[in-house]
Amino acid sequence: MKRFHAHVHVDDLAQSIAFYSKLFAVAPTRVEADYAKWMLEDPRINFAISTRGAQPGLDHFGMQTDDAAELAELKARAEAADMALLDEGNTTCCYARSEKHWVTDPQGIAWEHFHTLGDIPVFNEAKQSSAAGACCTPAAAPTSAPAAAATPQAACCGPAMSSTNKATCC
Description:
This protein has helices at about 15-25, 70-80, and strands spanning about 5-10, 30, 35-40, 45-50, 55-65, 85-95, 95-105, 110-120, 150, 160. The protein is mainly beta.
């Protein structure tokens, strides 16, 4: 079964953890110095917040799968829909090791499809960037060229799709 995923950047992690813990009536499943995640069952969502973004607000949406077959199904759908697909394969980000790929909607919102393979003790195992907003989320493809080719992004755990937006962490 798939789980919806949303990642939001926040300015004040402690204040946001307090707010969402009251809103969801449960403490986060994981808390780090720059990150918190709730794995809710009702509704079934992986909701994450972090202070790694350039500005507060939505970073990306996603679908987390329970197994590799579901992930392959999502990838096949994206390919059949003729979406620009960025396949990261096995990667690390957001304190987890995952198999993942990305697509970007016509508005430029990144969608992450992933299967979590396990936890890791650091945000990512790639070289950390000094930029506050560097990591995981591919920047959105411009709406004039939705099938733009993926290009690597410097100092990031995942490559970026060509865009005017900067990549931000998951």
